[in-house]
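Justification of resources, computational component.

The compute hours requested in this renewal are based largely on the per-chain cost of generating structure records like the one below. Each record pairs the submitted sequence with a full structure-token output. That output is archived, and it is also reused by downstream analysis tasks.
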Amino acid sequence: MSQNTNGAATLEIRGLRAEVEGKEILKGIDLVVRQGETHALMGPNGSGKSTLSNVIMGRPGYVATAGEVLFKGENILKLTADERAKRGLFLALQYPTEVPGVSVVNFLRTAYQSVKGEQVSALAFRKHMKEKMNTLGVDDAMVNRYLNQGFSGGEKKRAEVLQLAVLEPQIAILDETDSGLDIDSLKTVATGVADLIGPDLGVLLITHYQRILNYITPDFVHVMMLGRIVKSGGKALAHELEAKGYEGIRKELGIEETVGAAPE
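The structure output for this chain reads:
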């Protein structure tokens, strides 16, 4: 089943294969993420982790060639990216883009109204956003700036986490949220995500490194190599990866390394 009996939303990926520019990247992915669960998807460069997130969210150029992506029982592969967002999915980008001339607060209000499908007064939205800002420790100065323009890496990722908090999706995919962050920024961003995790939010956290998992405790850890999930387990698997490295896991499972690994 693709929906828990208690009503929790479920993202279920079945036999997913996908290609980019005619090259097959995903070679049969099976994964289930339920609302309220935190999953860490780990793997080396070229394993296809970011491709998976882009296929789930419907980014143009990422073509599913087989399998299904079910969300709350509906195959969403035919839906546009905004339709998927309206269903309750969210993707935090690895490289957030700058949007000159559009303030963070105006962007968030527009996105909120689009996802919720209703008009919200400026006052009501400001109250909602302010509650989330207080939870995450975001100040007014950030939300009045143009979206990501002149932002540091840490500020861009904090803005993404604020979007996550404001939009209140049921399942969030965080694509290498720790990428390019120094230790202090990593702690701030990861702690913000951890504060949002609860029974109403399921998280698929995509990362190379175990370090973000010092702040976000996963219920499940999956290792991805060469377009497949090759090993799954509990949070101890992340520490095993840290100790053995991806090469150690590759040798343990008898996986032959191919020349010219696929792009993310």
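The radius of gyration is 18 Å. The chain is about 35% helix and 30% strand.
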